[in-house]
Amino acid sequence: MMQERGVGVDPSTLFRRIQRYAPGIEKRVRPYQRSRSGSWRVDETYVRVGGKWKYLFRAVDKHGLLIDFMLADRRNTRAAYRFLRKALKTRNNCPRSSITTDKLASYPKTIRRLQKEGLLSKDVEHCTSKYLNNIIEADHGALKRVIRSTRGFQRMAAASATIKGFEVMRMIRRGHCILLRPGVTGEIRLVNQLFGRSA
Predict the structure, then answer these.
(1) What is the pLDDT of residues 158-184, one digit of tens each?
(2) What are the phi and psi torsion angles at 88 (to 5°)?
């Protein structure tokens, strides 16, 4: 975005700014997000942090609109439960007709537990179709190209904050948020609005 405006900024400065402001932007942008479909695609991908592989859980709707994401140390039932619970709380006004996952054994257990707890409707269908998950697999690839340019993360906190910044800016750029005007002008106005600044 800075290059588009002809402003030269050192990458380390941008990296520090992203880590500082991204968590705040992520919370403030939620009311401006377009409504999501009730058909979710859930999957996880690998991210290197401190020389070790960590797991980035992500969910999108059937149209590719981001629902939620979470970086975790492990890819187990506890992490899957934490992620889906977080996603459901973030999107509590969204109808949920189906959740499509890969064949990871953690998901059926997690979905049954959430249904037992009343956080997820018993009508929600759990699918394990690789074909239906192609949309999130392609989205992982696009996000990982952005992550690759950072040359890696050293700490989980920095990785989590930076990925939040990437996800939020990708949402805004791809039209997943309601903009008063289309294009770059609308994006600038939305970011200014998020921080209570006049455009």
Answers:
(1) 888 888 888 888 887 777 777 767 777
(2) -65, -40
CA angle 119, 124, 127 (to 5 degrees): 125
CATH of the domain at 115: 3.30.420.10
More confident residue, 148 or 59: 59
pLDDT: which is higher, 186 or 1: 186
Query: Which of 148, 126, 130 minimizes the C-alpha distance to 138?
Result: 130
Residue 147 tokens, joined = 């992550």
Q: Are 142 and 171 in contact (CB under 8 A)?
A: no
Annotate 52-67 with DSSP letters as a single string. Answer: EEEEEEEEEETT--EE
What is the number of domains present in the chain? Answer: 1
Looking at the chain, the whole-number percentage of residues with pLDDT higher than 70 is 84
